[in-house]
Structures are given as C-alpha cells and as structure tokens.
Amino acid sequence: MKAEETTDTHTHVVIFPCPVQGHVSTMLKLAQLLSLHRFHITFITTDCIHHRLHRFGDIQALLQTHPTLQFKTFPDGLPHNHPRSGESLVDLFHSINLHAKPHIKHIVLSAKPTLTCFIGDGVFGALTVDVANEVSIPIIHFRTISASCFWTYFCVPKLFQSNQLPIRGDEDMDRVITCIPGMENVFRCRDLPSFCRGTESDIVFPMNSMAFETRETLRARALILNTFEDLEGSVLSQIRLHFPRVFTIGPLHAQLNSRQDSNPETTPSTNCVWEVDRSCVTWLDSQPLKSVIYVSFGSIATVTREKLLEIWYGLVKSKKRFLWVVRHDMDGGDRVPAELEEGTKERGFIVGWAPQEEVLAHKAVGGFLTHSGWNSTLESLAAGVPMICWPAFGDQHVNSRFVSEVCKVGLDMKDVACDRDIVERMVNDLMGHRREEFLNSAEALALLANQSVSPAGSSYSHLDHLMHYIKSLGQDII
C-alpha cells in the first residue's frame, strides 16, 4: 500500500450498494479507497452477495489489505434458489425496499466507532435517505450510472411537461429529444432509458419509480458519480445547478489502481460474484496486437438461445479473433452447430466469466462488443478500446448513444434485429474498415481518463475533497 498523507482512525463510513455485481464492485472500490486513508468502513450487503464474494472473490485478502474494512450482511427476503437476474431482478428491488430498512438501521445503530456518514446507493434513494434521517446520520448518495443517465432520469418529469414523452409507438422512436439541458438534440426517443418506452418486459423499475428515486437525491448532502469532468463536463454543469455538491471520482477502477501499489492478492477479481476463468488471459497472450474483439453482456442481462446463436454466427463469419463471456445461466442449451464449434476452435475462446479490467487492458484486445453497462463503458474508455454497443435495458440505451454520438468511439447496435450479418458487418467495421478512426478517438479519451486519476487530476482532487468533506460531517454527529 502506498503511504498516504491523510490518515484517519475515527471517521467511520457505512456503505450500502444495490446487491448486484456492478453496483457492489464499484462501491467496494470506493470502500477500498477510503480504507487506504484509514477510514473505518462498514460495507453492508445481502447474505447472497456476501456468500458469492466469499466463493468467487476473496474477502479475506481484502480484509488483510484493508484492516479498517468490515462486512455486515442481512437477508434479501428471497428464496435461496431465486435467480436474482434478468426479468426476475425486479423481485430483488421490491424485496429490498420492503424488508431492508430494519436490518440496515440495526447495523447502523450498533456500529462502533460512531458513524460519521452513510453512503447509500441512490437507486434506493428514498430508503437510504429515510434510514439516515431516522438515525440522524448525514447521507451521501452514490449513483453507479453515468452523469448523462442520472441527468436524463432527473429530467423525465420535464420531458412530460414539454410533451417530449410519452413515446407514441415505433414510428416515434427516431424523434429527437430537444429539452434535456446540456444534451439538447443528442438523444432520440430510442436512446432514452428503457423504462421510458413503457412496453418492455425487462423493466426493473417503472418510469415514475425511477424518476422518484433519482429526485430523492435532492434530500442527500452530496452526490458521488463514477465519471470524470473531461468526459461529461457539460452535463455535470447542469446537474450542479440542482446538486451543488457533486464529487466526480471516476473511473473508480483506475483511481484505485493509481492510489495503491499493485498487489496480486487484491486484483479486481477479489470483488467478483462470478467465478473467473483466467485461462482466457493465457489465450490472449498468444494473440497478435489489437486483433481480438472481447464480447460480454454483463452480469445481469439474459440472451435467448436464438440471439446467442446469431451473435455467434456473426463473430465466426467476421473472421476476427474473439474472446466471449457466456455466463452459465444464459446459453440456453448444449447443442452447437458444427460450423460454430469449428470457427471457435480456429479463432475464438469462450469462458463463463473473465477478469474484465485485465482483459480490456490487454494488448491483444482491439474492440469490445458490450451491453453498455456504465462500468463496462468506463473500463473500455480508460483502456482505449472502441466499442460495439448492444444495450438491453435501463441506462444502457443512454450509454450506447453517448459512446457512438458524443465520444465517437464506437457503433450503436440498439434496436436492430440480432442478425448474424449485422454482427459480422459491425465487427468488421470496428476491427477493420474503421479501425484507425475508432482507435485514435479511444486512445485520446483514455489519456484524459487516466490523467483525471493522476495527482492533480480532477477525479484525484475530487476524491481528496470528498474525504475532507466526510471528515467534516463528523462535526454534525451529536
């Protein structure tokens, strides 16, 4: 661990993420960063997530490296065999909102030393604010989505007031949205969060609920975002008109790497709730420079067997090398056409889960076919890897448009038929015909991302300001 100027043996922060991989991993990185400065951290999560961290990550390695970090857990109220992914994710959110409050209050009230503040996942905006207020502890919200998506959620009521919503059928999908301040004329209806469509079966929160939870952050003392000023500055200036205290501390994975010495016992995989297959790194080591497209659709999204096969055919037909993460809960069957097996043996490698940060940073990786979750997007931007975006739900539609239209570092494949010919064409555009164009843009953004987490960079400074602010909140505790 690097020696830090700021050490603190009294400040105690409780952190509560939404209990899914992307949220837990991101907020656990913040916990590690605060622990590096000797803040006491109580990290609250569900029994299910904690069990998976023990099984597939390495909590003991984290605790040895971060002795001021501790874990507390509570039951999420769902049966042990509940999938907690895909369309069933809605059950998890409802159950947390129904059952979590007394458990979190008990953990908070029994915490020693006395808590300084509560950093809660803003996706549970009302729950976390209510808990903090009931136990008289200052609340800070962390949103694991992009600033652009947070701002879009916040502006949903304005979109209705200006008659930009609702969306009026498929013929309305290319209508341009003109009244999101700072992002005028960037988004079409099809680029808005999936819940704005009002017809999808995979909506986790209904529109009014998500807009409500986002606006609950107005009741918090501050807002933390996993982004950086050079990436989303115009939107952040609009957000600060409503939320004066905003800390942009991302990319968090790069921030953590910049502040701690490399330690093989605390790799990003220690935060993982899926079993990592590191054989793919060995395979990548034998591939030419920038020759591999990495394919992963995250930890939650499900893919039908029909779509999976179309993507597979497209990858094989492209004649490009590919590394593909196919989770064991999403492949839908065992019978694979012979031509796909043969094509994969020649140029492909498939694993159940990969160490994504390490993969994206590998010299052999030249592109990323992604679901456009914000963590994946940021990790790809920081590594200088262009993207093909195939969003599924939630914030992913916003992110895919941001990547293709604002950052110009990839292609947006939303709302097109999942067809092998389209996949083949997109892969060949990204990895062949337009390779230099996208690589140049991606490398320029990667430079800005990594500068932001270097000493004197904006995100580095914002994390220092956040730590000073948290310490000052201790004066509010009676």
Automatic annotation (TrEMBL):
Pfam family, any one: UDPGT
Keyword terms of this UniProt record: Glycosyltransferase, Transferase
EC code(s) of this entry: 2.4.1.-
MF-aspect GO terms: 7-deoxyloganetic acid glucosyltransferase activity; quercetin 3-O-glucosyltransferase activity; quercetin 7-O-glucosyltransferase activity
The keyword Transferase is annotated on this UniProt entry: yes
Catalytic function, reaction form: 7-deoxyloganetate + UDP-alpha-D-glucose = 7-deoxyloganate + UDP + H(+)
Record InterPro entries: UDP_glucos_trans (IPR002213), UDP_glycos_trans_CS (IPR035595)
Family stated for the protein in its record: Belongs to the UDP-glycosyltransferase family.
Protein name as annotated: Glycosyltransferase
